[in-house]
Write a structure and sequence with these properties.
The complex is a heterotrimer of chains A (127), B (407) and C (151). Chain A is α+β, with helices and mostly antiparallel strands and 127 residues long. Helix content of chain A is 28%, strand content 28%. Chain A has helices at residues 6-10, 48-55, 57-70, 106-114, and strands at 14-16, 22-25, 28-34, 37-46, 78-81, 85-88, 92-95. Helix content of chain B is 76%, strand content 0%. By secondary structure, chain C is mainly alpha-helical. Chain C has helices at residues 15-29, 35-61, 67-90, 95-120, 124-148; one strand at residues 2-3. In chain C, helix 2 runs antiparallel to helix 3, helix 2 packs parallel to helix 4 and helix 3 packs antiparallel against helix 4. Chain C starts with a strand and ends with a helix. Residues 1-14 of chain C have low confidence and may be disordered. Classes of the chains: A alpha+beta (127), B mainly alpha (407), C mainly alpha (151). Strand 3 of chain A pairs antiparallel with strand 1 of chain C, so a sheet runs across the interface.
Chain lengths: 127, 407, 151
Amino acid sequence: MKRMDLARDVLDKQVVDRDGTKMGRVDGLVLELRGDQPPRVDSIEMGFVVLARRLHPRVEGWVERLRRRFSVRKTARYRVPWSAVKDVDAYCVQLDVKALDTPAFDWERWLRDHVVAHVPGEKEEEE
Amino acid sequence: MNMKKAMQLALGIVTGVGGFFDIGNLATSAQAGASFRFQLIWSLLLGTVLVIFLVEMSGRFAAATRKALPDAIREHFGFTSWLVPFLVLTLVHFLVLGSEIGGICFALHLVTGLPPAVWALPVAVLLWLFLWRSTFGTIENSTSLLGLLTLAFVVAAVRHHPPTGQLLAGMLPSLPHHDPAKYWFIAVSILGSVLAPYLFYFYSSGAVEDKWDASYIGVNRGIAFLGMGFGSLIALAAIVVAAMVLAPRGIEVNDYHQAAMMLTDAFPFWGFVLFAAAMAIACLGAALEVALSMSYTTAQTFGWNWGEDLDPREDARFSLVYTGAILLSSLLILFGLDPLKLTLLTMAINAAVLPFIAIPFLLIMNDRKLLKEHANGWISNSVAAFLLVLALVLAVVSIPLVIVGGS
Amino acid sequence: MRNVNSLQSSAARPCGMILILMAAGTILACQHKSPEQELLDKAGPAGSWIATLQMAGEKWGANSVPASFVKTTCKAAGKDLDQVAEEVKKSKARPEVRDPLRQLISQAQAAGTSLRKAAEANDRPGVSQQAGQLAALRQQFEAWKKSVEPP
């Protein structure tokens, strides 16, 4: 059995998808309390609103309002059940998803299609 | 040591020489030499010793953990602890980038006679294009090779035959004979320019980009020591040249025009163009580094995909951070802020925010669970403790010194 | 279900302390000086600019710097000299200290303008004459400084 410190080593860890694309960080952890049994990690959460809540509920309110007004993201929190976690190692939490298909990449996708795609010029080839 | 490591070491030293010397070093060295001749060399030496240790730690961290600092600090200390250092770092990046852009614009102003503000947008576009189109390796190699042009200061310093006794005496701290406020202001600015907070965070990201592993720890030590050492030699040379050329004429540097003729005594024909070229190149290299550093820090803080070798389509957010940073900080120059005043204010802020930046860094260097046998030993930790005390003193004195000694 | 994302180790953050000390330092730094002493501090940049203009003229004569540099240096100097002149006007220093400086600065402003015009017109003797004039002003300025500085 592998032991982990939830707060030190899982919370705030880099999240990657099944191809290793970096898709965010573990911004929040949701535990399930189960009566007399020890609590169980239910899911991980990602998103600016989750981060804002960690600072202060009021900051969460501001960020939520900004998000409703401007964000291209449809869901405030991207919640992934722990069952979708493929692996946790020293570097990252790997999820069994494809980053581009998740809300975590809403902004990335939008910026790529609406901004980067309109910029002429491509990266030089690696020598 | 195999061929590849030897190349890395050589390249690292060249990068150190080229990458160390930037607008902050140029401005503070010229001021120090012009106003106090050799008397402030001690401040440069002190900063150099500290920055060698800090850069060594940062590279060692990246080599041992294969993680960059912002990445690891957020992971282990948590978002709320990292937020303040992150915001401070963002502010510092923004101001330093503005100063470097100001330096390039001023160099172009020297050659063309057009006001620096005219050059702000063209320079911003040039910087952006460079980052958008090239890989990390190309940027690192081309700017550091061109950066060797700054060795012109060393040649000039040797040609002036500075008095050895006074030079050596300057290596020990002493009290000023005149303008104490200005003296301490420049001393603090020199420390702020050498201990640029972005530098060691950037260095760790660079090491990750270059795919360092634990076998690079020896190479890293060499790069930190020789690269930073040689880099600071150029800053020292600039102090000497200013002391030999500007001080005897009674010229103090309150405007970059007053530094621009520094090299014309040693190189009567080429000196003026050399100065402009060295200034432009030093600032160009630094501006690219700082803009990238801003992207690294932001992307790592939020876990976005990052890497200068990726196509912007694969890391849109990473690429747009440096795009926005370059554009915003070039506005500082476009709106006519004096490049030297901006640089000096930035150096003082660099010094003032050092504790916020250094504390999490030095704490994580002692995380044995993470670094295992590569965690800081007692030597590094003694230096770290000294740095912390110094950083706290700087945080307290630097802003008041801007007010009394700044102009 | 409950959130545990408030669990985290906290690094030391002595922000408040630093801010308080910064403020204290600022207040301590603003001490009062005599009007003469203040004038001496304010006049510093003028001496440095006079020396800069002299050097620019000489270097132009030696073909070390382009005329455009002399022009922009003269402009930058003019702007700063105007500022010093304003400060001198406002100064409450004794007239026997203040008036010679006032005259010196207006002469320097005139010399800067002539230097710029001479360099623009590619007038070598004119530039060298202005450089000489600036050298003389520089000596007068040093003498003025000595007369004000407490022994």
